Amino acid sequence: MTDSVAPEPLDQYAFKLTGHRRALLKSVVDRRIRHFTMVLEDLKDPHNISAVIRTSEVFGFQDVHVISEVNPYRVGRSVLKGSYKWLDIYSYSKRARCLQGLKEKGYRIAVASTAPSSLPFDEIDLGKPTAFYLGSETMGNHPDTLAAADIRFRIPQYGLTESMNVSVCAGVIIANLDRWLKDHGRENFRLSQADREALLATFYERSAVGVDRNSPIHFVD
Length: 221
Hints:
This protein is of the alpha/beta class. The chain has a single domain (33-189), classed as SPOUT methyltransferase, trefoil knot domain (Alpha/beta knot, 3-Layer(aba) Sandwich). It is built from 7 helices and 8 strands. It has helices at 19-30, 46-58, 77-80, 95-104, 143-148, 166-184, 193-209; strands at 36-41, 63-67, 88-92, 108-112, 119-120, 130-134, 151-154, 217-220. Strand 1 (36-41), helix 2 and strand 2 (63-67) form a beta-alpha-beta unit. Helix 1 packs across helix 7. The chain starts with 18 loop residues before the first helix and ends with a strand. The relative contact order is 0.23. The model has no long low-confidence stretch (mean pLDDT 89).
């Protein structure tokens, strides 16, 4: 399914890192979540993709899903600033496979829409795991995605411009999700103990020797 490699035991690379570095990585892992995740559907501008990935990492979202059925995914390293190293980025050549995988993991599909009938963002029940879809800058979300959506939501706007830049939209969504997590106790949504240990081992390895062996980008069939 993916090209990932199982991480080495925690102590495999620990000796290569300072105590301060190990403590920093553990504190980051302890705050990581998968309760929410961002999905980028056929975005054209690599700067937008990279900006959303970078923002996701900053706010502690561990996974980002990138669909490239129409537009190929290109890494914008100047925008990423190394942030992708600390994430799991799932790249799909088929949108149906992404939808299937997320639903199998228990995610609701929430699709951003400018339609007046869409649910205002602040009325979404965020207690359930939710994948937030952002569509192409020019085409929007694919009809199949809209048909599969559990929620169509909108961010309230009060100006004359029809929509926001997609990466700005993602930033607004993620910042609001972060506020919700703070209000409801982020610790209640952190990864399981086993997942934290596995992720910490991965972070040790990537910090010590880079990402060549244990890539953060997973290509899904």
